[in-house]
Amino acid sequence: MARTRVWTLTATAALLAGLTTVAGCDAGDRDPEHVDVAAAFYPLQFVAERVGGDEVRVTALAQPGAEPHDLELTPRQVATVVDAELVVYLRGFQPTVDEAVAQNAADRAFDVATVEPLRDVAADHEDGADLAVAHEHEGIDGKDPHVWLDPTRLATIADSLARRLAAIDPQHAAGYAARARDLRADLDALDREYADGLRTCQRRELVTSHEAFGYLAARYGLEQVGIAGLTPEQEPAPRRLAAVAEEAQAHGATTIFFETLVSPKVARTIAHEVGARTAVLDPIEGQQPDATGDYLTVMRANLAALRTALGCS
Fold first, then answer.
1. DSSP 224-272
2. What is the pLDDT of the chain when averaged over all its residues?
3. For a surface tag, which of 3, 126, 131, 198 has the fewest beta carbons within 10 Å of its beta carbon?
4. Which of 152, 163, 232 is nearest to 193 (CA)?
């Protein structure tokens, strides 16, 4: 399946040349009362808003309801990158964002992978070498990008973001630090909820359509069994489907998880074959258009789904 195109220098230059025709997107159009932050996708937007508070203006590049892997920037979004005083992103996760940052904001970018080094794909799966090769084509270079699904790692990213914002806006450094501490307290509480909630379970195997939960599984002693690889819409090979079905049956899996932003077809196929049900486990790559909660809300919904699926007492 065709994936997000990595822009060439020519394509990016053409978009930048057209920025003057986009209303309200003139270069240098910054808010003097706030630090302008561009956040590449939802979890980074959440952290930027919590740490930045009223001192920042956060613009999300990936819109609610859209799969962030597939993001292709519009001229207006490129203008957001050009004008941002800080771009918070994860290099390799969204190739078009990488290209826009490299061309227009390399000196104003915060790559969260420089704070929390990414896990090797091979660390999570016996077929990790094959998955790593597949995902290297998408720019991740054999690494699992879903670092935000470990709340302790996200807290470390928030601490580092507070320091970056303080360097841009020293006058409000104390506020950034205080809000980062508050967010860390919330994430530490969430971590304890997960540790307590998943401590005593009948099963430890997490069967999911999208292999996005390696960080969560590693943190809480679960085993991730992914039907497809790290790319949500990657089509699994027939032998992979057969292997997952066999493993699910061997471990008595009662639930096959699928995510919110891609089709549940493959998960339902496996569930039908092994006599299991399906349920949603959200990798929180993006937000639903009608979302009423935040990252913490979704993580707690994920915990409830896991406890039911794994037979936790």
1. EEESS-SSTTPPPPHHHHHHHHHHHHHTT--EEEE-SSS--HHHHHHHH
2. 83
3. 126
4. 152
Nearest 5°: the CA angle 119, 266, 200 is 55
Q: How many helices (H) and strands (E) does the chain have?
A: 11, 10
Report the residue count for the chain: 313
Domains of the chain: residue spans and CATH = 9-115+150-191 (3.40.50.1980), 199-310 (3.40.50.1980)
Per-residue pLDDT averaged across 180-206, rounded?
Answer: 97
Most confident listed range (8-17, 47-56, 67-76)? 47-56
E-assigned strand segments in the chain: 35-39, 56-60, 86-89, 109-111, 119-120, 143-144, 205-208, 223-226, 255-258, 277-280
Give strand pairing partners of 208. Answer: 226, 257
CA dihedral (106, 108, 113, 114) positive or negative: positive
Q: What is the pTM for the complete model shown?
A: 0.83
Q: What is the pLDDT of residue 136?
A: 41
CA–CA separation, 71 vs 60, rounded Å? Answer: 12
